[in-house]
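Regression check, FO1 case 320:
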Amino acid sequence: MSEGRRITVVAGGVGAAKFLRGLLDVYPNKLVTALVNVADDFCLHGLAISPDLDTVTYTLSGQVNPDTGWGRVEETWRVKDELERLGGQTWFNLGDLDLALHLYRTQRLNEGATLTQVTLEICNTLGIEARLLPASNQEIRTQLKVQGQGWIDFQDYFVAQQHSVAVQDLRFEGIGSAAPGPEVISSLQESDAIIIAPSNPFVSVRPVLEISGITDVLKQRKEKVVAISPIVGGAALKGPASRMLEELGFERNSVGIASLYKDVAGTLVIDEVDLELSQRVEAEGIRPLVTDTIMDTPIRAAALARAVLAEFSLNEEEQQ
Ligand code: FO1
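Current build output:
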């Protein structure tokens, strides 16, 4: 990697992608690594689908669908329409352009390439200069125990059932034997700042942190770790994070997030509307940094990135 102070971002899907977009608008892209969750990955139509990697890739290359935050902008749906006519599986929306990416990734994996290699190849074709690293090259699959159904797969919970069922427990199949991907540990060790993106702490961040060796590095480097709370005023901006906090026995606010991250992060970024929670976050043993965390425009995402960089006095590295 290039000379300069490096940053690693632990990333899930949409929230992480927006934050990374803001960070890359203000910081030298070659100094940024995104360590991306792979426990949402699954196989459909025989294709290897990596939703979080793709959400980050499409966002950073300016190709994401701005209405959903995932999938491609100006997508077409001819394959899906024909599948529907045939009576095939269409519950997970795969557009024509998106399908091309899954075809390419599946072919390369079948040829023996690793997910790390394929991700790099895809990023190169899209001109992405930041480094995207899958958290692991081995299969990890999130499963949730939900009321009345027992254990179900992540995308069944998230997409097929629109995360409408109460979660009682979580497990990450395969995580016990999964190794961190190449350069994952060294990236965490060599970074001047490690940022846990405003992603779902249970289904996006935890399956990264539970991979062998990752939490150990974060604990050792806790003062270099800043987590950004995905909860604003008691609600998640997107997805089921706030409900899951309550369902799994945590406070449904940034104090609940603080209790989840207190061992791995020295600082927790919380939103201005949660200013009154600062002392309670501090009481959890994590320093609160209060700022605007809403990223509804690229300008606000960049402002959040700047506020986090200032915490590490990294602003002077900013690109012109
Ligand atoms: N999310 C949905 O809510 N419905 C979908 O049909 C859907 C399709 C989809 C296709 C490709 C892709 O990369 C992501 C997609 N997502 C969809 C998002 C995805 O399920 C979630 O954002 C993550 O897995 C959670 O981080």
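Comparison notes: Residues 12-14, 40, 51-52, 54-55, 70-71, 92-94, 98, 155, 158-159, 204 surround FO1 (CB under 6 Å). The CA atoms of residues 40 and 142 lie 6 Å apart. No diff flagged against the previous build.
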